[in-house]
């Protein structure tokens, strides 16, 4: 029975190449928890910005009439992967997990799998 | 930046209006590590040892409303927690201990409700109202602490939210009046959640905050959705017969012209 802090710690310690992780409310763009990051990589800025990414995608799906939900969004940079996983639990509506990975050290398939596990542990 | 998985230290600066007496009081109480409730007409902020542990505002859905309206908990479960956990200042803890909610769910629901209520306590929609001023020492809330929020973080987040509303649509008129979908234009919005649900609940009778209470969702998020819907010309206030008239941002709120805002103003003018 994990709380936010435990879930984020789990993500940072168990996912290879993790640079930072945040749990974000995409209604307000507020990060409800962050771990990792650096002075040059502000996770609260990332949380607010990626909220716009999620909102834009949800709006696009609405406009296209796609009756489905987003499981995750992958953004591939030259040196990093950014993974956004929307939470689907009863209390998780409107939340997403945001994970930044070092592309050199990360195993993308494993990271997606681990993020799914962490969502389950968060039990929201 | 939080190094411990706690609430992040939010964006820098985000200065609240200088000299706001409520914020000065809040800073002083934090410095004193005070315990008690700071009351205003809009609601109250509860502090324990100088950090904010709870916020309530009569205008916004509280934790109970959020949990029961959406069907997450039967109303009896919530009432039982309040009746049995409340006297010991632990209604929240009661829900977890009795297996009604997981710890993570309680934490996220409470935190979201706390920031939501705190926004409307510190920034009342009725701008003639002052922020909270009366401090009742040693008052504790029956919900009990879940995850405390430092005062500087609460101030920064509140200021960030105010800017977000301003950027979405710089006309606060839609905040307090009933809103109604603009005929024809709003028909495309069909989603059962989020903006679509807000639009469906906009019946020309309910104000944005009443819509939030009807849906059991965040009042701030609902307000932001309504401002965005107004900016897109999808809702209007019934009295005016047109979307809230666009206006430039208040002087001093924007350093440089925002081109997307100008586009939205043009679109709204064309929609009139």
From TrEMBL, chain A:
Domain of life: Bacteria
Protein name: Uncharacterized protein
Organism: Streptomyces mashuensis
TrEMBL record, chain B:
Protein's recorded name: Uncharacterized protein
